[in-house]
Amino acid sequence: xxSLRDLSFEYEPFPIGHCAPVLxxxxxxxxLDSFPPLEIFGAKExxxxxxxxxxxxxxxxxxxxxxxxxPWLGLYRHIKSAAFIRQTLAALxxxxxxxxxxxxxxxxxxxxxGAGRLRAAMPAKAGTSLESAAMSLRRVFTRRPVLGAxxxxxxxxxxxxxxxxxxxxxxxxxxxxxxxLGEGEWAESWGGGTEVLRARDPRVAxxxxxx
Length: 211
Prior knowledge:
The chain contains 6 helices and 10 strands, in the order ββαβββαααββααβββ. The chain has helices at residues 25-33, 59-68, 70-80, 82-94, 117-121, 130-142, and strands at residues 8-10, 16-18, 42-43, 48-49, 51-53, 105-108, 111-112, 146-147, 153-155, 162-163. The strands form 4 sheets. A 3-stranded antiparallel beta sheet has the order 3-5-9. It has a 3-stranded mixed beta sheet with strand order 7-6-8, with no helix packed on it.
């Protein structure tokens, strides 16, 4: 459903890509026509002038809406799939942004890809110690990272909507942003866009805690 075939990158001050189109026109139009109403969103004043609806922000309203909308339920299931996560990692690696996660397990709707390995990790003989079994399980569930995906509905109002400068949480490895605009809904003369910021102090240009 989501295609990254035409992905291109700038690499400074950090990798940021652009891709268009990413959705078939009929799918994009169906998603646009069924975008959730603003009244079920929650304001995120701590982040700027933004409204959010997600698994984290207003989760009950989020799941109720997604279940009620065939176009968005289709996208939800696609994004939750192991195939989508692996295709995204492969597209990034092809562009030189290799996160080294090819061997990671993928969480799919609460279930883990590769969970069948659990049986192989259990004691093969009745006399195997509990400690040995625990060590085998630890190797299965801790050595390889577990990846998951989710999406958020976000609204930035035309009268000054914005997100404050920020870095994402360390556990968020990749962010994809899909603009949702109908024909004639935005005039270029109004401005708008994304600012990519460079650290003022080069010593903090890379740090795992996002200072």
